[in-house]
Amino acid sequence: MEFRLLGSVAVVTESGDVPLGPVKRATLLAVLLLRPNTPVSVDRLTEALWEQEPPLHFKTVVQGHVSRLRALLAAHGAREYGIELATHGAAYELQLPESLVDAHRFEELVGLARVQRQPADTVRMLREALACWQGPALTGTVRSGPLEAAAAGLEDLRLSAVEALAEAYGQLGEHGRA
After folding, report:
1. 158 vs 49, 68, 108, 133, 147, CA distance in Å?
2. Does residue 90 share a domain with residue 12?
């Protein structure tokens, strides 16, 4: 099982993409994946789920989406991968190995590429990092302020990786690829 944020928000298993349902459920998943292994308050989730004023029953709506997301993950073997959607009072935490999230793998590879001494190693790592991208980050979510900011941050990191890749190709004398 893996989770995608770098393109359409998705849960992918060996048998393909898992249907997430409504946009708000994909948004909830995205917010939890952006802060893995960290409790995320219902207030923060609410801010991401509703661009404007939330409905009066917003807590019930959030609980419903969490419940269905929890069931969906369980039905696709989340436990086998060390994944659990936990409740902590008025907060939720998606506990999982961060390596299952494409954005985490991307950020980790970019970080490793930056400390490489050999341009060929830098090129290899940056190409692998950029291959994580399937399209604009966080596609298929509510375009609220918090998610717009997160998507912009990921895009900035992608652009810096592209620039670093061009520089590494230049150091290798492969100016046509830069």
Report:
1. 25, 32, 12, 9, 16
2. yes
Residue type for 29, please? L
Find the length of the chain: 178
Q: In what order do the strands lie in the sheet with 10-13?
A: 2-4, 10-13, 16-18
Total number of domains constituting the chain: 2
Which of these three, 64, 98, 132, is where a domain ends? 98
Per residue in 68-124, pLDDT tens?
Answer: 999 999 999 999 999 999 999 999 999 999 999 999 999 999 999 999 899 999 999
Write out pLDDT tens, residues 14-65.
999 999 999 999 999 999 999 999 999 999 999 999 988 888 899 999 999 9
**Would you say residue 177 lies in a domain?**
no
Prediction pTM value: 0.93
123 to 38, 117, 170: CA distances (angstroms): 32, 11, 10
